[in-house]
Type-4 uracil-DNA glycosylase (Kribbella pratensis), 209 residues
Amino acid sequence: MTKHPGAEKWVPQQGGMRKVRAELGNCRGCELWQDAEQAVAGEGPVRARMMLVGETPGDHEDKEGHVFVGPAGHLLDKALAEAGIVRSEVYLTNAVKHFRFERQGKRRIHKTPAASQITACHPWLRRELEIVKPSLVVVMGSVAAKALLGSTFRVTQERGKRVELPSGLPAVATVHPSSVVRSEEFRRDFERFVDDLRVAVDLLGQEAV
C-alpha cells in the first residue's frame, strides 16, 4: 500500500480561513484528490460558537464545491431548524475534504474514507478548529468521531451526551444525517437526531454562563 505524506505540508499555519480555503485545493496529502472534482472547504462564520463536523463530501458537494448541499444536507437543514439552530450561524465542515467513491455504471457511490485518509486530512480540520475556536463541536458520524475522538469511540453508545475532545473542548456526538436519510424508521431516527442537536444547543447555552 502506498504511503501518503498527509496534509501537514499544505496546511497554512499563518493567515486565516481565506488562506486555508485558497490552499486546500492544492493538497496532495492522500490519493483522493486524483478522482474527486475538487476539495470542499468548510463554510460558516469564522467565529461561530458551534462547529458541526461530518464525514466527507458527497456527489453533490463534490460537483458544487459546497458542504451539505445534497440529500443529507437538506435533512440537516430541517433538523437544525427544528432544534432552533440557524445554519448561517454555525460552521460546517467535514473530517475529509475530498469525495471518496466507487463507480457503479455512471453513478458515483459514496465510499467510507479509510483510516489512513482520515489521518492524512486531519491537519486541515485541526487548523479549522484553531481558527474558528468554537465553544462546542457536534461530531456527526463514525468518520468524524474517529478523527476527533479516537478509533475506540462509539457513536451509538455515546450519542447525545456531553463528551470532550482531547483538547478539552466540549462536544456532542450524533449520527451522520445521511444515515437518517437511509433509515427505514425515518421519523423515529429524525427525531433522535434533532434531540441530539437540542442537547448541543443546551450545552452551548451552559458554556456561555
User: Anything to note?
Assistant: Residues 8-207 form a domain with the Uracil-DNA Glycosylase, subunit E fold (CATH 3.40.470.10). The radius of gyration is 16 Å. The chain has a mean pLDDT of 95. The beta strands are 50-54, 91-94, 101-104, 107-110, 136-140, 162-164, 170-174.
